[in-house]
Amino acid sequence: MRIVETYSHLNGEAALRFYSPELWQEITDVVAGVDAEACRTKVSRERNRVGELLYSPEGMNKAFAAGFHGKGWRQERRTFYVTSDRDLMRRIWHLPPLEQKRLIEEKGHVAIQTYNQTDFVKERISVEVQFGKYSFVAHDIFVKHMSFFMSDAIDVGIEILPMKELETQMSSGVPYYERDLLNIIRQGRGVPAVPLVLMGIAP
Known about the structure:
By secondary structure, this protein is an alpha/beta fold.
């Protein structure tokens, strides 16, 4: 596959290229190493496309996972506790998980354990590869990357998305770069408050 477009939010790409050029090279190598045609295995069952051979999200996800894992990128999970007491949540969200749990229970609430998980993390860079439903991109950007950044676990988040030219050859409902570029730009220059690189790919 090839990288067609990138968008740098809050200087995410500049920071990555300057401070971690070897990681930038690894990411571009992983993208280039994915054989798109080998992932064109999904037979469409959609009414207006029955029998058409489409790019498989599952196949592409497996190819990206193999590429990133081969270079030492690993999945990472951040556990935390929540409750409905918003004032308490404002005070404790940044604390270690067990401290959150203790303080919630001291207030007489039930401490609900939950987590955020990101696909690939290495040396304070997180990467999400998104071929699922278009609504998942907002969760990646405004929850996953943001959570890891606010927890001081990453410095830059990367969101890899299909370009429209690839999305048209996939099942309906898949996100694409051009739409999510607009979604970020119209938030304004400072939102979300995490340095990001939006990366659009195509065969």
